[in-house]
Specification:
There is one protein chain. The protein is an all-alpha fold. It is 73% helix and 0% strand. It contains 13 helices and no strands. Helix 3 packs across helix 5 and helix 6 crosses helix 10. The termini are far apart. Keywords: Membrane, Transmembrane, Transmembrane helix. It is a multi-pass membrane protein. InterPro entries: TM41A/B (IPR045014), VTT_dom (IPR032816).
Length: 277
């Protein structure tokens, strides 16, 4: 009778080890696994996320402390088109008097918002167009790429449980599509960046989870966000005619973006055609 007892003991030990492995912060949970409504981060992961947020926040606060006080009324982050219209002239004066410090504060704020997925970067992009004209596109592309890269590495640390909790089915789909691409992964990522097929927030968070190399992610981001950034900056130039953020992407604009995006996946389509022939 000793053998059955040993089997029971070993089985219980194995189940306990599996539970411990699932609870470990270093264990990889299956992609798409739901967490039954529980908070997705373990204590260790939450500590890491909070520590990174605290470091970024402290740095941003120190930058704000070094900036000269505004003498033209209360300056604030724009959260709507009406905010932008009211702040445009005041921020323009401030940027002309303190150009270096203004750009430092602008870039730090944009990257912070992009890294921690804080809504409102679209208004920051419009602001670049309103204040700097078409040259603002370089500022927007730099900040958007830097913020997306920071978000990529943050997600590499603690993003898996969050993405699996928020978008389990979308994550499975994304992983399947990435697995199909092989050596044409850059073309596919360019298509996703140029077109609104998947939200940029999801791409930033999910890319390290599905093992997209950083150099592919970086190149696709730098090149792929240029068309949308150009559209946003141009809209910032004509801020008085803009009624809503929804006006940025009408049917004509979306059609152009998809046509540009289609060019990026054309080599993949041609390769498949040659294989089938």
């Amino acid at each position: 009778m000793a053998a059955p007892r040993n089997i029971v003991v070993e089985t219980g030990k194995l189940m306990k080890d599996e539970e411990t492995a699932e609870d470990s912060p270093t264990s990889k949970k299956p992609i798409g696994a739901k967490l039954d409504g529980r908070f997705p981060l373990t204590g260790w992961e939450f500590t890491v996320a909070f520590s990174v947020f605290l470091v970024f926040s402290t740095g941003l606060f120190c930058i704000y402390l070094t900036m000269p006080a505004a003498e033209y009324g209360k300056l604030k982050l724009p959260r709507s088109i009406s905010d932008l219209r009211m702040l445009k002239d005041e921020l323009g004066i401030y940027a002309n008097i303190y150009p270096t410090k203004f750009i430092l504060g602008y870039c730090s704020t944009y990257i912070f918002m992009q890294t921690f997925m804080i809504p409102g970067t679209i208004f920051m992009s419009l602001l670049a167009g309103a204040l700097f004209g078409v040259k603002g596109i370089f500022l927007v592309v730099f900040n958007a790429t830097a913020g997306a890269s920071s978000c990529y590495f943050l997600s590499k640390l603690i993003g898996r449980p969050i993405v699996s909790w928020l978008w389990p089915e979308k994550l499975k789909f994304f992983q399947t599509e990435i697995a199909k691409r092989g050596d044409k992964l850059l073309n596919y990522m360019l298509f996703l960046r140029i077109t609104p097929t998947l939200p940029n927030l999801f791409i930033n968070l999910a890319s390290p989870i599905v093992d997209i190399p950083f150099h592919v992610f970086f190149l696709a981001t730098v090149v792929g966000i240029i068309p949308a950034s150009y559209i946003t900056v141009r809209a910032g130039l004509a801020l008085g005619d803009l009624k809503s953020v929804k006006d940025l992407y009408d049917l004509k604009t979306l059609t152009v973006l998809f046509l540009i995006g289609s060019i990026s996946i054309l080599p993949t389509l041609l390769k498949r055609k040659r294989i089938y022939e």
